[in-house]
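Continuing the series of single-chain predictions for the mutant panel. This is the parent chain; the variants come on the following pages.
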Amino acid sequence: MSLAGRPSNIGTRFHNFLYDELDLDIVYKAFTTTDLTAAIARVRALGIRGCGVSMPYKEACIRYVDAMDDSAEAIRSVNTIVNTNGQLRAYNTDYLAIAKLLAEHQIPVDHTFAVLGSGGMAKAVVAALRDAGFHTGTVVARNAQTGAALADQYGYTWRADLGSSRPQLLVNATPVGMSGGPAADALPVEPAVVDTTETIFDVVALPAPTTLVRRARAQDKQVITGAEVIALQAVEQFVLYTGVRPTDDQMRRAAEFSRE
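Parent structure:
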């Protein structure tokens, strides 16, 4: 199952496609909740094998698990919980997906960057950027406490707003642009910022072509979408849940099916 503030059917379609493809007796469902304590308790009590975790629960769920994998402990953010005989272990496959996308798109590590947000997904992004070798960047977050702490942890700077800064790589790790949200059609920055940026990375998965992505593509900029992130992280979740790694062709077809 998955838990999200605004659940989509992307993960549901991805996982269930592979369960059918590999003839596994498993079903995946998406949920939201107003009682995280009870929701995680039911994962344990009902023997639900795994739980994907999305905004806004990536950090709040930590108190309810029994153990943290290094991938989650390092950034204190969770996107996957695996239940083994009632023991809940937390992982973060977002980091793995983001690191792979940064490498695949060959973004120069000497580019300046700005990451918008300071929540769980922003933590995964900033950690992946640091580990990839990016050395000049800014965490842009209105929350001074979490924004400054995240920037300091990885050796970057913090600002409450982007101001006159014009980074070469802009990463949106906020809910701005997410379908069903209060800012579903909005840009997370001023249009002029997008126009001067070389690469746009929007982690919002639904819709894949957010307002930010559409503006960047209209100008032929390099774009990385949340749909790419969710497909790659879902593969690693699938392996954790089942112990089976799909072939590249199966993963490709599952990702295409999830976006239909």
